[in-house]
Description:
Layout: H1 2-60, E1 70-76, E2 79-80, H2 81-89, H3 92-105, E3 117-119, H4 123-126, E4 130-136, E5 139-147, E6 153-163, E7 166-168, H5 172-184, E8 189-192
Parallel strand pairs: 1-6
Antiparallel strand pairs: 1-2, 1-8, 3-4, 4-5, 5-6, 6-7
Amino acid sequence: MARAxxxxxxxxxxxxxxxxxxxxRFSLLSRFISSLQQLKISxxxxxxAKREILRNHTNVIRFPSPLFWSFFDYVANGHxxxxxxxxxxxxxxxxxxxxxxxxxxxxxxxxxxWTGFKYLKGKPKEERIWQLDFxxxxxxxxxxxxxxxTRKNAVLILGCYHKxxxxxxxxxxxxxxxxxxxxxxxKAELHERKIKSDS
Length: 199
């Protein structure tokens, strides 16, 4: 009987070993599947967290729009070319009209409603140059400018006269294009204009 029991044990050992191996494989597979599930859950949580960060970030960067427009003069090599034009080429009447124009425009939300505003054609259009018209001393003045990178910032780059199809100086449009390009390339400076009627 003892011998028979030993023989029976020897016969059942392979099947027992196979069961152990199968159990080990099942255990490893279960752990692997569980790890994959944990990774998937973690990925979903990270993705949702990133979405929440983006939503919060979008909310954070919504700054209120400035109440008024700001105007800046074009400055090259330390010379404020707009202020020099203002002081040297404009009469007292023209200076008063110029100041009143900026005072009124700065309060208007849309530039499309600015008095005398329009975009120029040709090469100046490529540089996004616009002009403002005003009349003083029975002369038609033109103020050329571009918009700054910051909302409600306008840069005055050149002042001139205009009659018919002629500008004075004659190279006004060419000069305005060069100045707009210099601004874009960071080769010029800006000086915020103090509107006289606000002082």
